[in-house]
Amino acid sequence: MVRYMSEKSGLEPRDSPSARVREEADFGFRRVPAGAKKNLVREVFDTVANHYDLMNDLMSAGVHRLWKDALVDWLAPRSGQTILDVAGGTGDVAFRLAARTKRTCRVVVCDANERMVQIGRDRALDRGMLSGIDWLVGDAQDLPVAANSADAYTIAFGLRNVTDIETALREAKRVLKPGGRFLCLEFSRVTVPLLDDLYSRYSFSVIPWIGANVTGNREAYRYLVESIRRFPPQHLLAERIERAGLGQVRVRNLSGGIAAMHSAWRL
Fold first, then answer.
1. What is the CATH classification number for the domain harbouring 189?
2. How many angstroms separate the CA atoms of 202 and 188, rounded?
């Protein structure tokens, strides 16, 4: 049975220490008190949750589907594995993981936004997926999941929304088993000449316009674009992953660096 859980994932929970965060954090181009960012991000996703998957298709002309396929290809999930998909709200990555292993791996979806999790659970039920995926509401910086419990940790387009990236990366290491795999898919820094300017123009003009017309919230998608610009480029994110204690970091650019995947291992 697909279970909706706000406290327990089926992986044993742990006591929850307060995450260490800086006094201020980026919220798009704004600097806000670190303690306020979580609620600001939650408000953004509460507003757009019902249109989230449609907007992904419209903004990327469906290319985000190929990027998520590439994430699963690189992970190469295996039967019997437990995979923690963080910020996996509406289930796009989880469904791919389940399909790739013919539902023989266990996927735990953890997202900080309750509405996104509800939508993902409903999509699973609509697909007749009554087992193999658990749904959990939880913060990437303080995961309600036991240490050394996941064979793999995936996060797609969620890391830039956390208040403190380093804390989230340390949590990833904590929940992974020794030899476990970390894989992050995120918007990144364009590496192709001239494409960066075209992409920037599209991002700051077209994406907020689409957001305004589809969701009625231009500012939510302005935040999305600004958060991409604030996110560290490929090499700096790789350094942060290494500092968090994960090893053998590798990077693969997608679509000329519009997105990138970072792979690492808990050694």
1. 3.40.50.150
2. 15
Residue 73 makes CB contacts below 8 A (sequence gap 6+) with none
The pLDDT tens digits of the residues spanning 205-224 come to 999 999 999 999 999 999 99
Q: In terms of residue numbers, what domain contains 89? A: 3-9+26-265
| Residue found under tokens 């960012």 | 37
Separation of alpha carbons 68 and 111, rounded Å: 17
How many other C-beta atoms can be found within 10 angstroms of the C-beta atom of residue 247?
12
pLDDT in tens, 112-129: 999 999 999 999 999 999
Is 20 a domain residue?
A: no
Structural domains in the chain (count)? 1
Q: Where are the beta strands (DSSP E) in 42-112?
A: 82-86, 106-111
Distance of alpha carbon 112 from alpha carbon 139, whole angstroms: 5
Indicate whether 228 belongs to any domain.
yes
Q: Quick check: 255 and 190 in contact, CB under 8 A?
A: no
Whole-model pTM: value is 0.89
Angle between helices 165-175 and 234-243 (to 10 degrees): 50
